[in-house]
Prior knowledge:
Blueprint: H1 3-34, H2 44-68, H3 79-105, H4 111-142, E1 148-153, H5 157-167, E2 175-182, E3 197-200, H6 204-210, E4 215-218, H7 228-235, E5 241-244, H8 248-253, E6 258-261, E7 264-269, H9 276-309
Parallel strand pairs: 1-2, 1-4, 2-3, 4-5
Antiparallel strand pairs: 5-7, 6-7
Helix pairs in contact: 1-2, 1-4, 2-3, 3-4
Amino acid sequence: MNKRIQTLKYLVIDFLSAFLSWNIISLYLVKYVWSSGPDEVIPVTLRHIYYTGLIIVPAFWILLYYISGYYNVVYRKSRLSETWQTLGNILIGVAILYLVLHKSLKPYASIDSIFLVYFTLHFLIAYIPRLVITTITTKRIHRGEIGYNTLIIGSNAKAVKIYQEITGQVRGSGNKFVGFVNVDDKTKNLLGDYLSHLGSLDRIRTIIVQHCIEEVIIAIESSEHHKINRIINKLIETNVVIKAIPSTYDILTGKVKMNSILGTPLILVSHQLMPAWQENLKNILDFTILHRGYSANLSFQLGVLLRKRR
């Protein structure tokens, strides 16, 4: 799947929805709240806020969505998660704008009612097209039109079972199995009757790159559990989604957070040492600091060069 195109769709919709809702609420503010007559001149403050916000406000919303991690996973969305994530993001965003614009708008209008209208308006304009994209994408995944290149780690009974369960479902899970990797030195691999054997665990990073793997399912036998740390260490530096079959003990004791592929229980193994919003905020700060450091270094070098010429 082309993640860049899918991300671009959400970016364009989010920018346009922010731009449109800002224009509508500005028109509402001028026509129905502030103005008491057709011949009144719009105050300079309101005009300044409006024109400044045409670019800054949509950019603010894009930045907020990015920090929240909304664009991290653009294909694995459900309609329920779409609803709550959009609602939460817009609630936070409107609260921030309220704090920023409160003093500037207070002399001209009832601030609480304005931002209540803005919240409702922005949510509807942003959520409806998002929901349409998510629904269309989900249906295409279920029909098998699009999917994630998937690799199975494991080659025996459990690997065969998980493969049969996922491929035997009525609705497609999105997993397009490319092949499997074995973790032992046995020459006989039961999964070899169903999928291509791509190599051993030692070559897994190369295999992931060569076959554009997006998801890895760990389906090893109980006798191979001592190798789980080695497997995770091999995968942790990659960008693939990692899922694993939980043991019966883990399920009964509730030690793991269960995920499922349309009924098939799996554990979702997280790469991240921190939440998505912290990771994205860190990336922004790193970029800003590095950019400023580069600019300062460049200015210093230019200054030295000019002094030498003198």
